[in-house]
Amino acid sequence: MSISSSHTGNALALSSPWAVVPSLGHLDAYISAVNRMPMLSLEEEQEAARKLKESNDLESARKLVLSHLRLVVSVSRQYLGYGLPHGDLIQEGNIGLMKAVKRFDPDQGVRLVSYALHWIKAEIHEYILKNWRMVKVATTKAQRKLFFNLRSMKQGFKANAQEGTHRDSLSSAEVDKVARQLNVKREEVLEMETRMAGGDVLLDPAPGEDGEQAFGPIAYLTDASHEPTAMIEARQRDLMASDGLTAALESLDPRSRRIVEERWLKVNDDGSGAMTLHDLAAEYGVSAERIRQIEVAAMKKMKKALVEFA
Fold this sequence. Notes:
The chain is mainly α and 310 residues long. It has helices at residues 27-35, 42-55, 58-66, 69-76, 86-103, 112-131, 141-160, 172-182, 186-197, 218-221, 228-250, 254-265, 277-284, 288-309. The radius of gyration is 37 Å and the shape is elongated.
């Protein structure tokens, strides 16, 4: 069943009472169409259900679904207060109706309307919980019960309150009453009321009219020091600077190792090496150029050793 607001719809023409409802651009036209679908008598419903159950007769399934589309529309109206599109609620309810028709047993002694009611509500409930907020507001059975009853109970308390009294939160006595009626803990009532009172906040707001990025929570929630990639890279750097460097130095001969250590690992206060090329050249009785060549060769060997270590 498709209810699309992106297409313009013409006047609905049904070739027969059981014609499939086409895609419509106007929700009111869809609702008007399903309300004109004929209802099934008990005998007709039983016959269609048995045909579906015994021989998987799709025409019977279609009749059972179409004759109960008005029920979905009626149920969906009860959930308009959650700010979700009515057409979407109807479509989710239609999915629940089709699940009910598939599982309906005519020998159970109940009408399809009673059996389908549970499936329609369950599907709409699931849709609301997934889409009402970006973050799930209810996960446990108790939380789901609170979510779908707390709003209407609060409205009842407001209606019974004295004229001129304006408050959004529940009083202590009202919290206790809700907890008793729904058989949940008092703390769970308070927590759900807080969750439902809150709203979604964009972590990264869209740019303002002047083109500048608006300030949002992302600016102060980001913790670069604990970003997974940065943490892995930092760990690898620490490992290379300790075990990796030790392994690379051990791959050198004693003279090359001392030259590298004096030139790069021992640093003076001014940032220069502990010994210059000329100092090392005088100690080993060779030219400064030779010391530089040994240093370059040692660095290449260490680089290869570090790559193998990594």
